[in-house]
Design goal:
GO molecular function (chains A, B): RNA binding; RNA methyltransferase activity
EC number (chains A, B): 2.1.1.185
Number of helices of chain A: 12
CATH superfamily of the largest domain in chain A: SPOUT methyltransferase, trefoil knot domain
Oligomer: homodimer
Largest sheet of chain A: 7 strands, parallel
Helix content of chain A: 25-40%
Order of helices and strands of chain A: HHEHEHHEHEHEHEHEHEEEHEH
Strand content of chain A: 15-25%
CATH topology of the largest domain in chain A: Alpha/beta knot
Structural class of chain A: alpha/beta
Family (chains A, B): Belongs to the class IV-like SAM-binding methyltransferase superfamily. RNA methyltransferase TrmH family.
Keywords (chains A, B): Methyltransferase, Transferase
Radius of gyration of chain A: 21 Å
Protein name (chains A, B): 23S rRNA (Guanosine-2'-O-)-methyltransferase RlmB
Distance between the termini of chain A: 57 Å
Chain lengths: 262, 262
């Protein structure tokens, strides 16, 4: 058991918590809490750190993970934890580098169903979109380079585990990538306040991609202009827009609904 | 201009920020930031407090509010603000006491469309549900007594103004209230993992209410048991549940979609 914060491994772990660039370099990310840890595919866990009191109460849980476990005193664990009330377990997880092929992988003979995020900034929104996307049968998520980091701890928590299963890819040039999708017969729909057609008047049973913009400003013009079709979610009252994760959910589940009916 | 934090009005305002019970007693709530302030119906603003530098830059904005404005030095404003980076404007707003009649008020000859929240705890979720509900044409929101406070500053912010327009009511006994709805020919649907029918197989064009449960535990049995119908949102992948605000959004917009088609 590690009892000191000056232990070399602990120093390294503390650095990993603080420096996202170091996590990028090592191709890993950190996951905290038992609920998220049990969602990690076994082959992707590099190492698990558990506090003394967590380990005492959760022997079976730790064995089930089939991963190397290092024990820390509660004080040392609190030192490396990212949260105010540490839950006593933290895992180092290998990243996967997805390709466009992974994002287009269809199950049950359905067509690709993509979500494209332009400059999304709120970690809770991004995590919720991952969680919703998995449930709605989305095959992959594309993100502009300036979206919030998927490996941000708050994003990871909000995905409720979908981050381990949903293929995603950051792209340098979103308009360019949208054109590539179109060449692959993926029809691209931009959720836009100026959209002419209501979202439920389009057919999403063939390959489709939904373009979702930034929380405050919506889609950038150069991205919206690439879309095959601007769609609008009809709104009543004085509401001017929807939360980005909610707008994405309404569209993804409309596609899911149509595909079940087919 | 008020220049000291020992000013009687400032002391009172600081108390109002800290003590929700005092806000309850006075029948008011506090709203911060220009974006939310401009959404407040003029007749409900009791008073506006603006920082010196905000007032200098936003003369027209303050005049447009048609409300009594008190100026504070920036330091005094920072003292009474609830946020880390104060935006320089804060309003005291009168609460409205809604009745069941307000929640059932239909527009455009449509039937009542209610959302019923059981022990919802996350302020961001509650605010997002208000915002989405307004856009989806919901007529009113019922909340169990143990839901998070609608007047929590984080809830208010996430509503993006819908809190000023969406009728809502906290109820002591949710199962009792659900029975009352049923007597009024409102069909009640519980979003439930054990639901038999997919949500898009039901008809929501007549009076309907969607029952949404707590983030971690879903609907309490005694509430779900009252529903006329348990519905399920079909999910793919390994997703076990949806975020509460997302589940509510999918249902509310399905009702909106059906009502537009009718």
């Amino acid at each position: 058991m590690i009892t000191s914060t000056s232990n070399a491994q602990i120093k390294e772990l503390a650095k990993l918590q603080k420096k996202s660039r170091l996590r990028d370099e090592k191709g890993i990310f950190l996951v905290e809490g038992p609920r998220m840890t049990e969602e990690i595919p076994a082959e992707r866990i590099e190492k698990v750190y558990a506090s003394e009191s967590f380990a005492k109460k959760n022997k079976e849980f730790l064995e089930k993970l089939q991963a190397p476990v290092e024990l820390l005193t509660d004080t040392v664990f609190a030192y490396v934890s990212d949260t105010k009330t540490p839950q006593g377990i933290l895992a180092i997880v290998k990243r996967l580098n997805y390709t466009m092929n992974d994002l287009m992988q269809v199950k049950n003979q359905k067509a690709p169903h993509l979500v494209v995020l332009d400059n999304l900034q709120d970690p809770g929104n991004l995590g919720t979109i991952f969680r919703t996307a998995e449930a709605a049968g989305v095959t992959g998520i594309l993100l502009s380079k300036d979206c919030v980091d998927v490996y941000n701890p708050k994003v990871i928590r909000s995905t409720m585990g979908a981050v381990f299963r949903m293929p995603f890819l950051y792209v340098e040039d979103l308009p360019e990538k949208i054109k590539e999708l179109q060449k692959e017969s993926i029809k691209t729909y931009a959720a836009h306040l100026r959209g002419e057609n209501a979202y439920d008047e389009e057919d999403y049973t063939t390959g489709c991609a939904f373009l979702i913009g930034n929380e405050g400003n919506g889609l950038r013009d150069e991205v919206a202009d690439c879309a095959d079709c601007l769609i609008r979610i009809p709104m009543e009252g004085e509401a001017e827009s929807l939360n980005a994760a909610v707008a994405a959910a309404v569209l993804m589940f409309e596609a899911g609904r149509q595909r079940r009916k087919k």
